[in-house]
Design brief:
By secondary structure, the protein is of the alpha+beta class. 48% of the residues lie in helices and 16% in strands.
């Protein structure tokens, strides 16, 4: 499997009980033989960040060098650029309204049909990084103002985040 085999949709989800919701996802994933990975869009530097995390996680899975025991958590670890599950979990779902990238790896029509009953499609532009979001990403990924300046300015924040994702392989 490759990241290109995955389907990615922008959705909103309302979650009352995270553990119960995760159990629903696990059960559906097992039934449909797909991995269901949900990224918190508020902490992601757009779709390229999602694709990078998926690519790295799938490669680690294929090469049998995962840090975690599930592909879903591995993808969240790469998204966070951290080896710590507690950090990876922050990039997933939370109680309340979630603006999320919902990923099916590989794509599965039945799984999507079921998930579309509990999610709402969203067509907002999540690839544009506002100055507020740039500040959030700088905090999350410990990117200094000096790094931003050296990289060519705030418009390069996505590249700096993607660098942190890729560097996780070096920290293994």
């Amino acid at each position: 499997m490759q990241a290109s085999d995955c389907g990615i949709r922008q959705v909103t989800l309302d979650i009352d009980d995270v553990d119960r919701f995760l159990e629903i996802l696990r059960s559906l994933g097992e039934r449909t033989r797909t991995h269901i990975i949900i990224f918190n869009s508020e902490m992601m530097a757009g779709k390229k960040h999602v694709l990078s995390a998926l690519s790295h996680a799938i490669r680690a899975d294929t090469e049998e060098r995962r840090i975690s025991n599930r592909l879903e958590m591995e993808a969240l670890l790469y998204a966070s650029g951290s080896r710590q599950c507690i950090n990876g979990m922050k990039f997933g779902i939370h109680t309340g309204t979630n603006r999320s990238y919902l990923c099916l790896c590989p794509w599965n029509d039945l799984a999507w049909s079921e998930l579309s009953k509990i999610s709402t499609p969203c067509s907002d532009d999540w690839d544009t990084i506002s100055s507020k979001k740039a500040g959030i990403l700088m905090d999350l990924f410990e990117i200094t103002p000096a790094e931003v300046e050296a990289a060519g300015g705030i418009q390069r924040i996505r590249d700096l985040v993607l660098e942190r994702v890729a560097l996780l392989d070096a920290y293994r």
